[in-house]
Amino acid sequence: MTNHLMNLRHVPDDEADEIRELFEAHDVRYYETPPSRWGISMGGFWVHDDDEARRARALLENYQRERLQRQREIYQQDLAEGRTGGVWYRLRQKPVRTIAACLAILVILALTVAPFVTL
């Protein structure tokens, strides 16, 4: 029976490449289906054998744990060096775009709620 190991929807290319390398380095017999352009099928990494699935899932768990730690460290370093941040960071870096996005959110919210509110 086939076993779905991982959904590929919204997975960055570098992460998918690293997983392919991980599986190939450990001789995991997997196959891959790409996600559809319109989001109907999810795509992913698959294996046929249950034992192979257990082994691949263990490798994936370790990889995901290490990647999470690496990405957190990169984010913390970017925060410390001022290369990323929240709303105030975006407002300082791109004030026109940030204000335009906030106004668009307010307009959409107003149009959505307007039919239900009587003035």
Descriptive terms for the model:
119 residues; DUF6164; 10% strand; 3-stranded antiparallel beta sheet; transmembrane; flat; 2 domains; mainly alpha; Transmembrane protein
Q: Care to give the gist of this entry?
A:
It comes from Marinobacter orientalis. With 119 residues, the chain is mainly alpha-helical.
Distance between the termini: 60 Å
Strands of the widest sheet, in order across it, are: 1-3-2
What characterizes the major β-sheet?
Answer: 3 strands, antiparallel
Class per helix and strand makeup? mainly alpha
The percent of residues in helical segments reads 55-70%
Strand content: 5-15%
Count of discrete structural domains: 2
Unreliable segments of 5+ consecutive residues: none
- SSE order, as H and E? EHEEHHH
Number of helices: 4
